[in-house]
Amino acid sequence: MELGLKDHVAIVAGASQGIGRATALAFAAEGAHVSMCARNEAALREVETQAREQYGVKTYVEAVDVADPKAIVEFVKHTEVELGRVDVCVPNAGGPPAKPFLETTMEEWERTWQLNLRSAICFAQAVLPGMVERKWGRIVTLTSYTVKQPVPELVLSNTIRAGIMGLVRSLAGQFGKDGITVNNVGPGFTETERAKKLLELRAQARGVSVEQARADLEREIPVGRMAKPEEVAAAIVWLASEPAASITGQTVLVDGGSYKGL
Fold it and tell me: pLDDT class for 153, splitting at 50, 70, 90?
């Protein structure tokens, strides 16, 4: 199926590893030019090299801490100068610490708001004017299946990322008339460094090996395994595609069937 993304320009935040990296390369595979940011510039350069050499697309990379609103605005401006415009934006940031509620600090709540919700707001404010002017655009936020089904040890994520769903719904309703869709992808447990750390915490809390914690977790997932980053990336790229133009304001879970609600 032709996704209609060739020569479009996609911003992917947190593109140095995990789902962000897989997403940047998935857009490049569709012929989209990719602008990437993360704090680790060296890792970004590796993704940039792969995108250029394997898919022949244009790229732009910049070291950015997405908890800094000014840095986000500057990054978007630089992308527009280097690549001409922004058609697709994928706000993405690392997940907050996993810990019980009474062990969280106000500093951690503030950092989580800055990193996981405020950054999405800042990206949207920066890219939407150009999208409105061109009457076409896609914003696909990246959160977690915890926005639908909270996980006990992820209280910071459960709370702050739920706010992104309100943002997605609000923007979808306001900007649909401008040819812009706004959606959210919520991965379940995925083969990333963060998942490994969460498994280590679960193993420690339950007094079992990491291998046993993983086996216990995967028994709870209907497909019997964690997702691959590339599978999450495929959902993001699909939502940004031309054929998905009537899908907006939605949260698509890539969780192997873990969510138990209707």
Answer: confident
Residue whose token pair is 């090299």: 49
Asked if residues 184 and 140 have their Cβ atoms less than 8 Å apart, the reply is yes
Predicted TM-score of the model (pTM): 0.96
pLDDT at 151: 85
Over the chain, what HEC string results?
Answer: CCCCCCCCEEEEECCCCHHHHHHHHHHHHCCCEEEEEECCHHHHHHHHHHHHHHHCCCEEEEECCCCCHHHHHHHHHHHHHHHCCCCEEECCCCCCCCECHHHCCHHHHHHHHHHHHHHHHHHHHHHHHHHHHHCCEEEEEECCHHHCCCCCCEHHHHHHHHHHHHHHHHHHHHHHHHCEEEEEEEECCECCHHHHHHHHHHHHHHCCCHHHHHHHHHHHCCCCCCECHHHHHHHHHHHCCCCCCCCCCCEEEECCCCCCCC
- Sequence spans of domains, the chain: 9-191+227-254
Q: Find the helix packing angle between 69-83 and 119-134, rounded to 10°.
A: 30
- In the predicted model, what is the mean pLDDT of residues 63-75? 97
Q: Which of 108-122, 148-162, 230-244 comes out lowest in average pLDDT?
A: 148-162
Q: Can you tell me the mean pLDDT for 211-225? A: 95
pLDDT at 1 (0 to 100): 84
| Structural contact between residues 35 and 87, judged by C-beta atoms closer than 8 angstroms | no
143 CB-near residues (< 8 Å, 6+ apart): 116, 161, 164, 165, 184, 185, 186, 251
The answer as to CATH 3.90.1170.40 being correct for domain 9-191+227-254 is: no
User: 73-77, 81-85, 94-98, 154-158: which range is least confident on average?
Assistant: 94-98
